[in-house]
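Appendix B, example 12.
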Amino acid sequence: MNEFLRKKWEMAGLSDDYIFNKVMLDYDICLEVLRRILPDLHIKKIKLPNNQQEFIVAPDAKAVRFDIYTTDEQGNHYDIEMQVADHHNIAKRIRYYQTASSMEAYDKGQPYEQADDSYVIFFCNFDPFQLGQQRYVLHKHIDEIPEQIIEDGQTDILFNVPSLRHDVDPKMQAFLDMIAQREVEATDPLVVKLKERIAVVKRNRKWRSEYMRRSVYEMDQEMREKKIREGERKVRDGKLELLEGKRELLESKREIKEGQDRLKEKEQLIQEREQKLHENQQTIIKTSIVAMKALNIDETTIRKEIKEKFNLSDKEIKDYFAE
């Protein structure tokens, strides 16, 4: 036997869902736990608990497998679950479990008002809603009148096992302490039965072998899921890098376009300035020619003077005197 799995088996307690299931299969234990959870129902007897019972709501719907399922003499339905890890989906998980359980509460042809009540009970090794409560009891209510509970026969109860608030009845607290492997009063009859039942489970070689196989499968499954998540993360990172590259490329193109626009504006401005300078120079030359002619300076001298002063070609000089 793998040493790691052997130690895991030896250390496993009620917080392990496999051990929890096997312990809760005991009729007397299951009945007493339900009585402590729901003392007001005064449950007298239940059907023999069934673990891993599967319900299929519809042919194409996701199947649900209950940890512990039973009914009492009044026809009330009970699903008891041990939730080890927080997958951050507890609310919708309860909703689906309640749907499956409630389907059993409606017999064909029976009036709706005669439907049996359904209780979904979760023992969580974490605070299911992160609100600090030790116990959460969920019912439907009217939003505009929060205190008005809708009596539809459905009740969800969740226990925050690690909580140390001690807000529940002492007998219920003893069971929660057993799950959390905290010190508990040894004289409590349920505690005695639980310890004896756990010992019986641990001695069962068939269950031990089944536990090992299941643990190996779960570890392999966890490794596969981890690789899948890692692959999905790499794909997401790759897509993000690609999007970032595209964004940077678009930004570069935008900057290039803006640079080209600014360059065109500067070229246009330079052309306008050169045109203005040219026009000013033409005005000055024409004015100079007129002034020198007024002083009776001969044309040859004027041509020479204008050409040297303004660095003009013979053709440009000719054009000025042709006007």
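Confidence is low (pLDDT under 50) at residues 57-62. The longest strand covers residues 64-71.
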